[in-house]
Structures are given as C-alpha cells and as structure tokens.
Design a protein that fits this description.
The chain is an alpha+beta fold. Helix content is 45%, strand content 20%.
Length: 507
C-alpha cells in the first residue's frame, strides 16, 4: 500500500491510498482534495494513519510466516518450475542399466524424450526447451546424430546385453529373432532405403529392415539394419553368428517365425551346431506328412509330434480360438478378392500363390474366377499350427518357447507406437542408424520399467507410469540469507508416489 497524490484539472490535489495486487492498482480509500500545502499535508497525515490501521488489521489475520510464504510464492516465476518426473524415473533407469557411461548429455536427452514425447527432432527441441529448460539448436542435434551410430552403437548394445544377462541370472540359453519393415515418408531411394515387400502395406514407400534379437521375456540383446529390398531369410545366420561370437553365447537355441524357415537356414543352423525352433508351414509339407497332420483330429489345447525322416520333429497343435481367427481371415481375404474381381481390377498377373490370390484361377484364355472349392477345402487347416525343431525338448516346451516370440512382436509394436520409431523422416544413412540406436536404448529403458513394475506386482502399466512422470514438478530457488540454491520436488499424487517409491528400491 502507498499514498498517491493525484493532480486535478481544477488545481487541487487528491490524496488516495493505493494497493497493487496481481499487477493491477486499486484505490482503497480517498481522503478528499486540498489546494494549499497545509491542506494537502493534513490529508496525507490522515492517509498514513489509515495505512497503519489497515496493516494492524491485516496482521490479525495473516501471520508473519504466512506473509513470508505469500511473498515467496508471489515472486516465483515460470522458469523456476520444471518437469522433473522423466529424469526422476526414467533417468534413474537409464543410469541403473548403465547407459550413463556414455558421457554425452545430449544422448540422454534424446533417449528420454523419445519415451516421453516421441516425434521429430524439431519437436524434441521444443519439448526440451518448454518442459526441461534445456536449450539445444537443431544443428547441434544433427551433428551429434552424424557420429552417434558409428561411435556408440556397439557400446549401447553391450550395455543392453550386460543388463539382459543380469536379468537372466547369467544364462541366455535361448534367443528370439525377427524382422520388421520401417518405411520412410520420402519417395526417393538410396543404397539403404529401398522399396520392397512391406509388412504393413507401404509397398510404394522406401523402407529398411530392422532385425532384433531378444532373450526370453523380450529383453534386448542387439539389432541390425538391412536394405529395404533384402530377403529376410538371408539375414538369420549372419545375424546369429555375429552376436553369438561377440557375446560368447555358446550356441543358444534359436527361435524364429515361419518367414525365416528356408532350406538354406535350416541347413546352415544344423551345420554350425545350432538347435532351433521354427514356425512350420504345414501346408508346404509332403503329401504323406499332410495326410498325417489331418488324420490327427486334435481337440483344442492338444498337440502331437510327427517324427520326420531327416530326424527333425514336426509338432502340431490345435486351438479353437486360432481356428476362428483363421476362418475369419480367409473370409475377409475372399471378400477382398470378390470385390476386386467385380470391379475388374484383377488380371492374369494376379494369379499366384501369394496370400489369398491362391484362390484365383483362369477360366478359358482371359476370364478370371475364384475357386470356391479350394477356399472351402482350406477349412480343414483352420486352427492348426506347426513347429519344426531339432531339439530334444518336450513338445509342450517347444510350443511354450515359440509362444514367447510374442515378446519380440510386442517389442516392435512398442517401438512403432509408444516410441513412434516410424515413419522415419531422415534421409542420410548415418542419421537413420542413429535414430534406430536412440529407439533401441529407449526400448531397453521401457522394458526395464515393465520388469520392475511386474516384479513389484504393481498394476500400473509402463505406459501409465511414463505418463505420470509428465506431471512431476520441481521448484528451484535461492535461499534469501545464505544465497544457497535449492531444489524442492512438489508433493506427488498417490500413483506418482507409488512409482517413485518402487524405483528407489532398485536404483
């Protein structure tokens, strides 16, 4: 509060008590106006007495401590409040796994931001500036990406592997390998980005293949990037050899899906002493084997083993749930064929064995029709699943191990949705590789968060726990007397406290 002398047009001076609150001025009381210095002095004396009374009254309701708190809060600015949750939770895991040995603070920022706010590098810059108070120029990021892959890829993989080995109690006896395609928004190709068979239907977009190796439970071991037009079956053996040699894995059992089931792969694995469990294409077996499969008459949940002449075992299982899914997929495929046939979009070039095109046949010289007898005959295969192995494991163990491939499929799903690894907007090869390296590291952190929450029987998902970190705040200020800087984490809600307390038990 203060006294204001207001000059009037009439030549008099008005005396008022003014207060300032929220950046606005307010007249608390007016005491009239005077012309002579004596009259003005008398009015000002009344105003000072009134201020004393008002302050005395205020002290009856506001303690000195309250006043200090009020003054402190009134002087806080936005740049003193920051989001601390990502560093508090994800940063702890980053350190705990061992990634902090990479002495690049920018790498840490890029990895954690990939989890919290995945997007383009420009969006990363905006997020770091707005919520973390970290100012980075885009050129600084691009310069770092230019050296990231060549300098840190193997170190990142080694750190992730060491942690996976620890989680697996020092023994990795089985590994899971799979591949996925990652497409680009740019339409031009180069030595790495090639158009090829896309698993997500983006056949016109340049793409790359990403191969991923994980342990039981989906914990990361390593990854590699391949040209977009490579045949995925050619990647299995070189990939397994590379990581087995680097980590001295001592011939682990290799688990892979039916897409990697080639004669060359099987021969190569056996020649080099590997045991394997591969998804089997049961409709591609010999007629004698197919007759044996269909004669099994399995009920849901049942399985049987067929010993092949070459010493390998073909294990067949049946599931009602899978049968319904297979039937639904066949009907949807048939509906698409009928729609395209009626629209005149099918030609002789569409008659092949790819997918549901196998139901097409040529009638006469030019007319194409659908072979409904062949469609109906396929029903007997609904619900059947095959597994090819050269191990001595029990059939149920083989099926259970193969079922663990869903972990690697889930790893791809997490990378593509939660981490938004695709589409990729980079054009230069080394920046594409750096982008994958950052995403691999981010996946390692998310996987560890998932493991800890599961071990503590916490019902929160890793996605929910990550979301909670976005609203964990910290205030930074300087103590008035000692001039010492101080950081105070604001009180968390119950879910936030739960996640924080769990993480503190481990890191």
């Amino acid at each position: 509060m203060f006294i204001r002398e207001l000059k009037n047009r009439s030549g008099t001076t008005s005396i008022q008590i003014i207060s300032k609150y929220g950046g606005k001025y307010k007249v608390l009381k007016s005491f009239g106006s005077g012309r002579t210095p004596e009259e003005i002095a008398r009015l000002k004396l009344k105003a000072r007495d009134e201020i004393s009374k008002l302050k005395a009254q205020a002290s009856l309701f506001i303690s000195e401590q309250d006043q200090l708190v009020d003054d402190f809060l009134s002087n806080l600015s936005n740049d003193q409040i920051s989001v601390i949750g990502p560093e508090l939770i994800l940063g702890r895991i980053y350190n705990g796994i061992g990634f902090s040995v990479i002495k690049e603070e920018l790498f840490r920022h890029l990895v954690i931001t990939r989890i919290i706010s995945p997007g383009s590098k420009l969006k990363t810059i905006d997020y770091l500036s707005r919520y973390q108070g970290v100012e980075i120029h885009k050129d600084e990021i691009y310069r770092f990406l230019d050296k990231l892959h060549s300098k840190y890829k193997e170190q990142v993989e080694q750190i992730a592997f060491n942690h996976t080995l620890k989680v697996q109690d020092g023994n990795i006896g089985i590994v899971f390998y799979d591949m996925t395609t990652l497409h680009f928004e740019a339409s031009d190709e180069d030595d790495l980005r090639r158009t090829g068979f896309s698993k997500v239907g983006k056949h016109q977009n340049p793409q790359i293949y990403l191969g991923l190796l994980v342990s039981s439970g989906g914990y990361p071991i390593g990854y590699d990037i391949y040209e977009g037009n490579i045949y995925e079956g050619h990647t299995l053996l070189p990939f397994i050899r590379k990581f087995e040699k680097r980590y001295k894995l001592n011939r682990p059992i290799v688990v892979a899906d039916a897409g990697l089931l080639t004669t060359d792969n099987i021969t190569g694995l056996e020649k080099e002493g590997y045991q394997y469990i591969l998804g089997a294409r049961i409709k591609n077996q010999s007629n004698a084997i197919k007759d044996k499969i269909l004669a099994l008459n399995l009920e849901t949940g049942e399985h049987a083993t067929i010993n092949k002449d070459d010493g390998k075992k073909l294990i067949i299982s049946f599931s009602d749930k899978r049968a319904k899914k297979d039937e639904n997929n066949r009907k949807r495929g048939l509906a698409r064929l009928e729609k395209n046939l009626n629209a005149g979009k099918l030609t002789k070039s569409n008659i092949n064995k790819r997918g549901y095109n196998k139901y097409l046949q040529l009638e006469g010289q030019v007319k194409i029709k659908i072979d409904y007898d062949k469609f109906n005959a396929d029903k007997k295969w609904d619900g059947l699943k095959g597994y090819l192995t050269n191990t001595k494991l029990k059939a149920s163990t083989v099926i259970d191990n193969y079922a663990n491939l869903w972990h690697i499929e889930r790893a791809f799903r997490i990378s593509k949705t939660d981490l938004r690894i695709r589409p990729i907007y980079h054009r230069l090869k080394h920046r594409i590789e750096a982008h994958i390296c950052i995403s691999f590291t981010a996946y390692s952190i998310l996987k560890e968060l998932e493991r800890i929450l599961k071990k503590e029987k916490c019902t929160l998902s890793p996605q929910r726990a990550t979301e909670l970190t976005k609203n964990m705040y910290q205030i930074s200020f300087t103590l008035p007397e000692t001039k010492q800087p101080k950081n105070v984490i604001l009180k968390m809600d119950e879910e936030q406290k739960l996640v924080y307390s769990i993480l503190k038990k481990y890191y």
